[in-house]
Amino acid sequence: MKVFLKMFFFLQFFSILLFAQEEGARQKALSDASVAISDDVFAIFNNVSGLAQLNWREIGAFYSPAPFGIKELSSFSFAYLEPFEFGNAALGINTYGYELLRESKLFFGYSKNLSNKIFLGASIGLSSISIKRYGSDNALFLNFGGLAYLTKEIRIGFSTLNLNRATYGKDKSQIPASFNLGVSYAPIYQAIIAVSASKQLDKDIAFNLGAEFFPIDHFCIRSGFKTYPSQYYIGTGIVYSFLQFDYAFSYHNDLGSSHYLGVIFSFSEEISRSKRIQKYLQNQ
């Protein structure tokens, strides 16, 4: 029983730090300030509405081998996006932990382009936790999000995660319920700045700031900072043909560093992501 209690409270302690871990390495490098960007397949995990900005198929994978140097918290995510005439459908899978304690999530999402400036989406998630020798439990939760272009350069976005406040058993703190609001500004195709605020129930507001810049074709640098808990992020990305490779590094003053790796396969034209999106929206 002591082992069970230790692992239970261990998971509770890291729940804030691990929240939104499902996102890709690009999003981590931007300190998860991506609610008003949400323009790649990993939007299924944060703001599913943003997927409607894309009219091409995408597949993505994300891996964090040892967050804060703890290999037992390794995380893996997979995401798939398929566009249709009636909207975009997406699938997301995330798992973290190890054989003693593991949590897995499965997402099914749908997003719709309403006017080439307004996008809405929703997803259903199934979360499962398993503690070796002590059993398992499941929970079904709902997410909802929206995204809008105020101008060609400025987007605003919001998302509600675990809208129905699903939980494991009677403990209401196991699956965080949160509201996220953000703004992004892209002065040029090669750069974007994003700011967001996230509020979990019974927790302080966390503010996120991230920036991405392409100094040369096919290569970008990223950086970000978030509060509660305070963490610093840097990262890079290499985009060539239909492949995008991303890396991010974060540092927490008390817990140490984490590494994040990601890859995205895009089945579309070989031009920058922002230009592809603008071309699609302008031609509608």
What does the model show?
The protein is mostly beta strands and 284 residues long. It has a single domain (2-282), classed as Beta Barrel (Porin). The protein has 3 helices and 14 strands. The chain has helices spanning 2-18, 25-29, 273-282; strands at 57-64, 75-84, 87-97, 101-113, 118-131, 135-149, 154-161, 178-188, 191-200, 205-216, 219-226, 231-240, 243-252, 256-267. A hairpin with a 4-residue loop joins strand 6 (135-149) and strand 7. It is globular, with a radius of gyration of 18 Å. The model is unreliable at 1-9 and 12-20 (pLDDT under 50).
Broad CATH class: Mainly Beta
Total helical segments: 3
Gyration radius over CA = 18 Å
* Strand segment count: 14
Helical amount = 10-25%
β-sheet strand percentage: over 45%
What's the CATH H-level homologous superfamily?
Outer membrane protein transport protein (OMPP1/FadL/TodX)
Structural class: mainly beta
Could you give a short account of the major beta sheet? 14 strands, antiparallel, barrel
In quaternary terms, these chains amount to single chain
